[in-house]
Every structure is written in C-alpha cells, then in structure tokens.
Specification:
The protein is α+β, with helices and mostly antiparallel strands. It contains 13 helices and 34 strands.
Length: 628
C-alpha cells in the first residue's frame, strides 16, 4: 500500500513482522517530527570542507542492512584512515557532540563513518541493547576496509552508547581495529572480576529502574523502517522528510507518564502502564543477577581478551564509572591500555571548565585536553605519526576535594593504606541529630540502631547514580527518621581516599528480604553534606548473587556492600559520613520485602531493620587512603 503526497508515490513504511503504515502515518508516530538528518552538517560549514554520502545500507552477515553515512575531506583521492562511530542515537547529533574533533579529523585527512546500530534510526533489524556490538561491528569494519577510500586502519570513538559498542567489538580483535576511545562505556560491562552489575542494570542485586526512562525513549523492539527495494536517493528524500526520533513534546509527555507509572506496582509493568511499545526492559526487570539470559546481551565479560589499544574515559559522578575502572583493572596488563577519570557527570568530561561545578559542589579547575589527546592518539595508531601520546601515566584520576589530577601506574593505586571506621551509637543513630559516630575504636557492647523501611514511603533518591544533578546536599535526607547517620568527629588532618571502599554491616530484620542503601558523604564545615559515592544491596544476595537466601526474623547476618569507589580528599575541618536507609527511590526498585519475586508483586510489607555494632558484630567502613 502507498499514499500519494504532492503527486509522488511514497513507498509504504513497514513495521517488523509484516505490518505496514504509510509515510504520513509515520510522521504521526514520530510526534509529527520532520526529518533533520543533516541539520548540524548544514549549519557547521563542514559542507565546504568535506563530502557527505548518506543512507548507505551496509549489509550484515544475516542480511540486515545498517544505515550509514561517510564523510570525507574534499580534494583527497588517496585512501584514508577511518574513524568509526556506531550509535543508537541521531548521527547528526553525534557530529554536533564531537564538533571539535570532527573538524580536526577532516582537516587531518580522516574519513568518518557514522552508523546506526540495528533497529535504530533507519537501520533494519530488531533492537536489543548493544545488539550487534560484536558481529555487526566486525562486519562493518570488514566493509570499511574494502572501500577504495579506506587505508584499512580504523579507530572507534564515542561516549555512552556510542562507546558501549566498542567493548564487544574490541573483544573480536578485528585486524583493522587499530585503536579506540571509549568514554562512559560502563553500561556494556557484564561480568568481570568484582563486577556483576550487567551493564549497570543492577547495583547489589537491586534493579536500577531509572533504566525504564531510557528504554522507553530509545529501545523499542518493533519500529517503523523503510522498504529495502528503494534507491539510495529515494531513501535520502524520505529521511529528509520524516524522522525516526521523537520530538521534545513526545519525550515530555512520556516523562510525565513515567513519573506516575513508576510510583505504581508491579515494577515489571512500568513501561506497559505508560503506554510504551515493547522493550527488553519488560524482560530484564524479571531476571535475577545470576540468570544465564544476561549472557545473551553482547556485554564484555571475563574471558574476553581485547588487544585493541584503548583510552578509557569515565567520571566519578557517573553510575558507569565503577564498571569502567574494574574493566581497566582486568585489562591493565594488556599493552596500551589507559584510563582517565574526571569529576563530572556522565559524558560531560569535555565540558569541564576552570571552575567546574557538579550540582552545587565546586570541583575546581577540572579541564583536560581530551580533544588534543584523542587526535594524537589516532594519529599515532592510524597514521604512524611519531608523537608522545604513549609517554603518559597509565592512570590519571581527578581527586575531588583536593581538586587536582593524580597519576598512578596501576590499579588499585599503589601505596594505599586501609582506614577502618567502626559504627557506633547507643541505639539512637537515626537522623543527623542522633548520636551515630564513625571512629577507629572498635565497639564493645552497644545497642543496635533500628529504622523502618516502608516501600510506600521510600527514602527518595538524592544525587548519586544517574539523577541530575548527581551531587546534592544530603541534609534533607539525613533528617528523616528512617535513615541512620554516622559521622566522624571534625577532621584535624585531611584524609585522601582513592579506590574501592569496603563496607561490612551486621543486619537483622523482621522480614524475609529487604534492601540496604548506603551513601558516603563529604561534610563541609557549614554542614553541607555532599554525596561522594553510593551503593545498594538486596539482602537475599548477601551470600552471592547465585545464592539467594531469605532472612529469618531476629537472626543477625553479615552483609558486605560493594560498588563504592572514589577519589576524594576530606580536608581538615570536614567530616566523613555515611547514611543508611532501606531504599533509594525512584533511582532503584523498591523491595516489597515479602521474599517473593518482587517484580510481579503489588502488596508491600513494612519492615524493621537493625544495624548491629558490638564486639561480636562490629560493622565498619574501610577507606583506602593515600598520603595527600
């Protein structure tokens, strides 16, 4: 079926599995969005320096074709090194995001290839998170090296999802894949030593339901696509007229519906209630951390051995940072692996200024010449240009609080010493006005602290994880009676913390299951308490994600919380603080505390949890410290 538009016969636009819809209907599906596939190209002046060949349909081994653009500098006839960006997002937006680099590459004699992964943009196929990272990425590299404009050397680059595809591809070790720059790639890290978050979907076995927003916006399994039997010219005309991307009006409406839907039970129906098309979230929310179906996603895992020279760049205030650092630790003995960690939030490293502020916290001058480094990186690996890009520390990390860059030769940072701080109180650790303390003195006989965990009145998310801003003053949270607060005395000497933080809590509850949500704060002399790092633990997984065990009323259990990592200097006059609650919502799923599957339940149970700190049950926080 086709519809007439201005006297031109417009081919039907198809849905996967055979359904069809006319092109005018597609405009409605896209929120009445007009195509803007070259908006940045036309406004940037690139058309005076380069040529753009777009809507090239590159075939994969299974016959699916991926929508691809190629940009080449004008007047160059010899084969060129190639920069590849594979993304689920608007390719024009990718150019805009890296505009300084794009200009440098065109001037430096590179060809750029931008491709939408399968199921996104106008690429064919069903969408899956990082789907095709390995085979599709490999096939794309093989296609590139066969092109007359390619010299057979390819580098990959991108941030967030445009970085996540690089990890699975790097594991394939394609001979043309000469170098990579992966920024904020932690959401494609599956199981490596010390990490079992499945791309950040879990923290401590608690689903990060904030993913529902991303899946509902970017990850429909079934979607409209163009017919396969039309010319490249016709594809260009259609993509200029219609957009596969939702308008801001559509996104705003979805966010409003999500904000309501996420308050309701069960959690497995969050996207269905808001009217979202089917996504993988509907299934993933039902999987336990040990479910073998996670292996179907094309994450990078222990057992993969990528040899591609890599620059990994991430941020302390990014929920993907922990996974990226642990991946680097796993790969650090592989040649030519480097790590940079900034103090910013997700994919904002390049926007740091001489007065970088994250949330309300001043991070100082966090600037770094990422563009200069990346240009030199690819010049070295793709063009054999002699430069000093490898004469650099293996690890560069920004120490917050001290507001300075630090360098290390390996991870964990050499020379760290443990500072163990024990929890103390006389049973009145609730709120920041209680008497919860942290000190190096081991506890003797002390009363446990109790708090109520009510899924209908959860502790609200405030910074950490993925909220905006990711750094916030925690004072309002720490005034809640269902939050336990433990602080050191005012520091006489500064404490520099760099590395993974160990937390062991002894806990009992009157429910078969519950969650622990813990946050580490830097408390300023005026009382502001800025979050530094946070984590969760679903207590059924205290013995391991593959060994769920429910609790018995009154029995005390040892619970180790992992995933806390930072580099932060606590100056003299500050205090170190942790606070503990039973939820961190709506960033993470609420535990209904029945011991059931949770994702399909609608009737929550109120629980009382107790944190024990005595000679027999000495709960503690252990900080890896360095000489400042």
């Amino acid at each position: 079926m086709s519809k007439q538009s201005g006297g031109r016969s417009t081919p039907a636009i198809k849905f996967l599995h055979g359904a069809t819809v006319g092109a005018l209907a597609l405009a409605w599906l896209s929120g009445l969005a007009w195509g803007q596939s070259t908006k940045y190209w036309e406004s940037s002046g690139l058309d005076a320096k380069a040529t753009l060949d777009r809507e090239i349909m590159v075939p994969m081994r299974d016959g699916v074709r991926l929508s691809t653009s190629v940009i080449r500098p004008k007047g160059v006839t010899h084969p060129l090194p190639v920069i590849l960006i594979r993304t689920p997002y608007d390719r024009d937006g990718e150019l805009a995001h890296q505009d300084k680099l794009v200009a440098a590459w065109i001037a430096g004699g590179y060809a750029l290839v931008l491709q939408n992964e399968r199921g996104r943009g106008w690429s064919e196929g069903r969408y899956q998170f990082v789907g095709g990272a390995r085979n599709d990425g490999y096939d794309t590299l093989s296609w590139i090296v066969k092109q007359p404009w390619s010299n057979g050397r390819v580098g990959t680059v991108g941030c967030s999802s445009s970085a996540e595809h690089q990890l699975g591809l790097a594991a394939m070790n394609h001979p043309a894949h000469r170098a990579m720059v992966a920024m904020g790639p932690g959401s494609s890290i599956g199981e490596v030593p010390g990490v079992m978050t499945h791309g950040g979907f879990y923290k401590g076995g608690v689903p990060m339901i904030d993913w529902a927003d991303w899946y509902g916006t970017h990850a429909e399994i079934n979607r409209a696509y163009l017919p396969s039997d039309i010319s490249q010219d016709e594809r260009i005309r259609l993509t200029d007229r219609y957009s596969p991307w939702p308008t801001q009006e559509v996104l705003d409406g979805q966010k409003k519906r999500l904000d309501q839907s996420i308050l309701e039970f069960p959690s497995q129906d969050i996207l269905r209630r808001m009217g979202s098309a089917a996504t993988d979230f509907d299934t993933l929310i039902t999987l336990s951390p040990a479910n073998p179906r996670w292996r179907r996603l094309e994450f990078i895992h222990e057992g993969d051995h990528p040899r591609v020279p890599a620059l990994y760049v991430d941020a302390w205030n990014d929920f993907t940072g922990f996974g990226t650092i642990k991946l680097y630790q796993y790969l650090q003995n592989t040649p030519n692996q480097f790590l940079i960690v900034a103090p910013t939030k997700h994919c904002k490293m390049q926007q740091a200024t001489e007065h970088t502020v994250v949330g309300a916290r001043d991070m100082g001058d966090a600037r770094y010449d990422y563009e200069g480094l990346i240009v030199k990186w690819f010049d070295h690996w793709l063009k054999d240009e002699p430069n000093d890009v490898l004469n650099r520390p293996k690890i560069q990390m920004y120490m917050m609080g001290a507001n300075t860059w630090k360098t290390y030769g390996s991870w964990p940072a050499p020379g760290t010493k443990p500072l163990r701080l024990y929890l103390h109180s006389d049973g009145r650790g609730n709120t920041l006005h209680g008497n919860g303390k942290l000190s190096t003195t081991q506890p003797a006989m002390e009363q446990p602290d109790a708090f109520i965990s009510d899924p209908l009145h959860p502790v609200p998310s405030s910074g950490g994880g993925d909220p905006d801003p990711p750094v916030q003053d925690q004072t309002a949270i720490e005034l809640r009676d269902d939050v336990l607060v433990y602080s050191t005395d005012v520091l006489r000497e500064g404490v520099a913390v760099t590395g993974e933080i160990e937390v062991v809590l002894y806990v009992s509850a009157d429910a078969p299951d519950a969650d622990l949500a813990l946050m580490l704060d830097d408390v300023y002399p005026d009382g502001r308490a800025y979050n530094v790092t946070d984590t969760m633990l679903r207590l059924r997984y205290r013995a391991g994600f593959d060994k769920p065990v429910l609790m018995k009323t009154g029995e005390v259990y040892r619970a180790e919380l992992v995933g806390l990592i930072t580099s932060n200097y606590f100056p003299p006059g500050h205090r170190i603080r942790i606070h503990i609650g039973g939820s961190n919502f709506p960033l993470y799923e609420r535990n209904l505390q029945t011991g059931g599957k949770n994702y399909d339940e609608t009737q929550p149970r109120v629980a009382t949890l107790r944190i024990h700190h005595s000679g027999e049950h000495a709960s503690f926080v252990q900080l890896p410290t360095l000489t400042h």
